[in-house]
Amino acid sequence: MNKDEDTSIFTSDYQDTIEEKIDELKDDGNYTIDNPLIIYNPYGTGSLSYYIYYTSDEDSQLSYRISTDGYDGFERNLIDDYSLEKEFQLIGFVPGEVNELTLRETNKNNEVLEKTYEIKTPKLNENIDTQLEVTDGDAEAELSDGLYTVLGHDKNYASNIYVYDNSGVLREEFVLDGYRADRVIFDDGYMYYPYKKRGIVKVNNLGKIVKFYDLGNYAMHHDMVLDDDKLIILVNQDNTETIEDTVISLDLESGEVTQLFDMKDLLPEFYETAVNPGENSYGTDTLDWIYINALSIIGDDVVLSSRELSTIIYVSDFESDPEVKYLITDPSMAEGTSYASLLYEKKGDFVSQAGQHSITYYKDDSLDDGEYYLFMFNNNYGAATTRPDFEWSNYPGVGSYNEGETSYFYEYLVNENDKSYELVKSFKVPYSSIVSSVELMDNDNIVVGSGKDNSFEEYDNDGNLIRRFDYSAKKYAYRVFKYSYDNLFVNEK
């Protein structure tokens, strides 16, 4: 199928036209497992994917295996409830190689039918590692299921989404329109991710973009999370004197965008005492006084991470009546303000987080009401360009932009009953002054992306290294999360 190279894939007309052409091909052919309809990346969204369609002789479930000389194999079970009609998007093909694809049908009697094809997959346009450098650690734990998803690879030089398996083999490239995707949201069989600064797409399991969302006068930065039928998004607002201090919601049904709050209204003293250094990380002179870089929903409330203030900010009733409930930071950060009453007390002897990213809330059954955990990538980075006179003496061991001994995985136990926080888990991770991420997996493993180190790792729950992956980049990747891609797969093999 030929596609007009002058036509952007990021239009409804393009996506609908491709779907119509596929439907015509489906109607014209008698496709079976011996002669399936296979189309390379028809919707333009996944560079290492193929659309497949055929009709089986009997109800069966479909799985597939990709074998490629010089690379570990890739095998997955598709979401297929004993159907006759097979219509799927297959990912995992190694770029620039001859891939051997084996389709495997299993009927209700557990009888198996297999068919194998050879497919030459095109090379990628970007110079991206096909095989990462892999180093095994000493931990005995198994790697978690899923695919490592590199977001903001090489900052914005190669900003598409790159997906790697547990062997460090590249298995997919999701194509974007010049902006890194800060996170991928999976919901009800769809993927949601930013494709440009002011736009988010909804993609179905065949790779078709079924809806475009326009953020209007807001531009994305750093993070978004799902809250029922809405996305809560960190944004920059047009025609303002500040950046990285505003939060909006996007209604996924109507597409309506609503500004929820501006941090200048919630923490005005921090804003008023900030000094404009003349140039921010965007290369402009707009004041980046708080640098919100992550958020996590807690019921009707939200917890935010401020890199510039090395502070965790809890905002209650964020959609209806936003108000700062508490701050977690070293008291020295709030000196000269009236915010001392908002500070939670540190329990124990440890250094509070500095320049942190990827704040995440979770709670288990062992905790009392009013208790929960917050975990994060503690960059251990001591810099605040809008507070040049701040003394970092209460943060021994912090690094600079280019040099540092270590960053940390940090996990706090927060107790709202006595207004305290306690470091209950910490282990060293490769130093990264900026960016970076942590993620707790379903099997309790911890995935860490150390952006400035050009690496990501998976640890067991005690912080013992299972496997490390190193990638090539001019700059760094912003985040690495591990997703199950449950819009495509079940019961990973």
Automatic annotation (TrEMBL):
- Superkingdom of the source species: Bacteria
Q: Where is the Arylsulfotransferase N-terminal domain?
A: 38-122
Give the molecular function GO annotations: aryl sulfotransferase activity
State the Gene3D superfamilies in the record: Arylsulphate sulphotransferase monomer, N-terminal domain
InterPro entries xref list: Arylsulfate_ST, Arylsulfotran_N, Arylsulfotransferase_bact, ASST_N_sf, Quinoprotein_ADH-like_sf
* Upper lineage: Bacteria, Bacillati, Bacillota, Bacillota incertae sedis, Candidatus Coprosoma
* UniProt protein name: Aryl-sulfate sulfotransferase
